[in-house]
């Protein structure tokens, strides 16, 4: 079983805790970059596989889930998103596909299979932050 990386980057803003998010991503560099981009906006827990992310989602209530579509092994991101969406407390939770898949039709495929938002890699920091802020404003 893949080990869980439960590192987070929580800070306090106006005496309120930041929203809890989960990044399901197998590549360390992508986890590091995403954590840096979201510092001060939300806390980020990490899972290295779809299976681990699914188990973490069952244990905690995340406001946003960031999903690598093509992890190196195990369940792909679409299957993981579909399984998470079947959990009662995740039916309306935003799942953001963060992926290098950027061919015509990929975005639509991910959105039709459990993801609610899509950002292609390399991730633009401003676009990611704007998307996260938009999602949090809608919650």
According to DSSP, the number of beta strands is: 8
Task: Give the class from helix and strand content and strand pairing.
Answer: alpha/beta
Mean pLDDT: 88
Helix content: 25-40%
CATH structural fold name:
Rossmann fold
Radius of gyration: 14 Å
Major sheet attributes: 6 strands, mixed
CATH level-two architecture: 3-Layer(aba) Sandwich
Neighbour order of strands in the largest sheet: 1-5-4-6-7-8
The tally of structural domains comes to 1
**What portion of the residues fall into strands of 2 or more residues?**
15-25%
Text of the CATH class: Alpha Beta
Write out the CATH superfamily name. Answer: Response regulator
**Number of helices, where a helix is a run of at least 4 consecutive DSSP H or I residues:** 5
Cα shape: globular
Which runs of at least 5 residues are low in confidence (pLDDT < 50)?
A: 1-15
- Terminal-residue CA separation: 33 Å
State the order of secondary-structure elements, H for helix, E for strand.
Answer: EEEEHEHEHEHEH
Oligomer: single chain
């Amino acid at each position: 079983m893949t080990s869980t990386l439960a590192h987070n980057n929580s800070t306090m803003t106006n005496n309120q805790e930041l929203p809890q998010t989960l990044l399901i991503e197998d590549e360390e560099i992508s986890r590091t970059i995403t954590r840096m981009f979201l510092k001060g906006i939300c806390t980020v827990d990490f899972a290295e596989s779809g299976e681990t992310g699914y188990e973490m989602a069952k244990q905690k209530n995340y406001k946003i889930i960031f999903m690598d579509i093509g992890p190196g092994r195990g369940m792909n991101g679409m299957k993981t998103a579909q399984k998470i969406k079947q959990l009662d407390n995740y039916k309306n939770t935003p799942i953001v596909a963060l992926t290098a898949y950027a061919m015509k039709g990929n975005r639509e495929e991910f959105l039709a299979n459990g993801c609610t938002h899509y950002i292609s890699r390399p991730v633009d920091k401003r676009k990611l932050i704007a998307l996260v802020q938009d999602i949090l404003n809608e919650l």
